[in-house]
Amino acid sequence: MTSHPAIEATGLEKSYGNGNARVRVLRGIDLRVERGTVFALLGPNGAGKTTAVRILATLTTADSGTARVAGYDVVADRRRVRGAISLTGQFAAVDEKQTGEENLRMMARLSGLSRADARRRAAALLDRFGLADAGGRLAVTYSGGMRRRLDLAAGLVGDPQVVFLDEPTTGLDPRSRQELWQVVRDLSARGATVFLTTQYLEEADQLADRIAVVDHGLVVAEGTAEELKNRVAGHRLDLVLTSREAYLRLASRAVHHAPENLTLGLPTDGTSARVRALLDEIDPDGTEVARFALRGATLDDVFLALTGAAPAATGHYQEQDQDQDQDQDQDQDQEPTHV
Amino acid sequence: MSDALASSRTHALTMAGRGIRLSRRNIDAVITAMMLPIMLMLIFVYFFGGAIDTGTEYVTYVVPGVLLLCAGFGSSSTAVSVSEDMKGGIIDRFRSLDIGGAPILAGHVTASVARNVVSTALVLGVALLIGFRPSATPAAALAAAGILFAFIVAISWLSAAIGLLAKSPEAAGGFTFFMMFLPYPSSAFVPIDTMPDWLHGFADHQPVTSVIESLRGLLLGLPVGSAPWVALAWCAGLLALALGLSGVLFRVRTA
Where would you find the membrane-spanning parts of this chain (chain B) (predicted)? Predict the structure, then answer.
């Protein structure tokens, strides 16, 4: 066996639409994922994550650039690539009107297993994904987390070397998310290469050996979670300021903003000398900083520094969603008064 | 090559099993699709039939037309199920398993044929109850069944192509309306020579008419002339068109 990487992509570009409406979704992406590792493509909505996955999974072709998955070219050797991968996308790819067991048996038959083998494989996967009791029920009766697990299981009937997961936990409740994370860890422990996309930093931090941050169709940073954190600065100095004027004056230097309590986070290496120098520099008279706290940089800081966009924080996204819903409700409520 | 053929066959059979299972689970929609032709038959026989002079008992005249309407209407729902597959994530899953468009669509068409065999039998059963008396020889009955079968296969594939063309399952549903109304400007419910002159050209030569004339002639033991051959030619032509169209559309939709 040659020791080719599981995934290798060079200069991937892809645009959709024509003329003025033309959108460059990928603007030259290079990726390299070693076998048996978990790799996360991290980025905000619209960064091009799904397009990258679809190209690597042979479902769409790049305008330019090349990619090899499991050692095969995704265009010339499409068939071999398909034999070596599985894709679980954002939209559940299971039939609601079939039972969990029927769904898995169908996928196993389609992957070329005999009737008897398909039955065995379906039973084994249901067991492994904690769906043994629910196997005889129609998938329409499953919870969101169960459906996602079934979906993932359906992708694994052919024992793929490379598993693509496109936003595997979007829309799941915290407990289901934890369960799915465990599934990903198990997959990796069994030797599969996992390529996942996510907009949740915590998810990338928890699961991935290496992370590539994408924004507007470009990889803006790549490395381990630790390396990425060190790239911005080792630490962050959180300052609680005494006035709005001081807050506004310093806001552009900060990587963390909390205007409601006049708090800014500034990057620093955390040494006593630098922190002292920084405080002296921004507040020579000792009147503008009320309190400060030193903390280790998080991936949020990295994300913000690299993309200029606030990331979705895993722990809060449900609240945010609710807020958005409420906003929409209010908008709708207001509409009749305009008319 | 024979390996690829064998796996294509397994794919198509598995997809057909899926289609039939999904139809069974969606039994309310299937029953609605069966009720409609039966209701139409009852309405035409009992409400309008007395006023229509076809030279025979009206029930005898109209049943072949209802069988065909039932087949066309039933087959056209294939468009909706294909469109639903294309909308969901399942099409990507199938493709990443290297399953081609042909086996996927063949699965839907097979399920459609299975549904139509049941609904045709049901319509025929009700027709016999309300006084339809065919006088076909076994050979003629078999020929009639064969032509109806060919029509169902052709329209189902055509529906599958429409399902690929439609932007949404709701839009795909529009094809069922088209297929439901296509039998009206034909000899299905009233003789064509009672229609205005400008309609004769279309009504005489549209595909549905040749199929109905074949069914009517074969089931009632009347001379059929060239109608069965014209009907089969139409079915073959539509099928070829549907196969070509669906092949191209599948590639375009999944590019």
Answer: 27-49, 61-83, 104-130, 142-165, 172-192, 229-250
A72 close to A81: Cβ distance less than 8 angstroms: yes
The segments of chain A whose pLDDT lies below 50 read 1, 311-339
The CA–CA distances, whole Å, from A332 to A105, A323, B246 equal 46, 14, 42
Residue A268's closest CA among A284, A279, A257? A279
Distance from CA of B189 to the nearest CA of A (A): 38
ipTM of the complex: 0.85
Dist CA A251 CA A291 (whole Å): 16
Shortest alpha-carbon distance between residue A33 and chain B (Å): 20
Window 89-118 of B: residues touching A by CB (8 A cutoff) are 89-90, 92-99
Taking an 8 Å cut-off on Cβ atoms, the answer to whether A82 and B92 are in contact is no
Given a contact cutoff of 8 angstroms between Cβ atoms, the answer to whether A265 and A255 are in contact is: yes
Around Cβ A38, how many Cβ atoms within 10 Å?
A: 23
Which SS3 state, helix, strand or coil, does residue B80 take? Answer: helix
Which residues make Cβ contacts (< 8 Å) with residue A125, sequence separation at least 6? A104, A131, A153, A156, A157
To the nearest whole number, what is the mean pLDDT of chain B?
90
Task: Please state the pTM of the whole predicted model.
Answer: 0.78
pLDDT average, residue stretch B232-246: 95
| A77: enclosing H helix or E strand | none
User: What are the phi and psi torsion angles at B29 (to 5°)?
Assistant: -65, -35
The pLDDT score that the predictor gives to residue A232 is: 61
CB A144 within 8 A of CB A180: no
What pLDDT sits at residue A336? 34
Mutate to test the interface with A, among B98, B108, B254 (most CBs of A within 10 A): B98
Indicate the average pLDDT of chain A: 84
User: B8-44: per-residue pLDDT in tens?
Assistant: 888 999 999 999 999 888 888 788 878 888 999 999 9
CA distance B159 to B173: 10
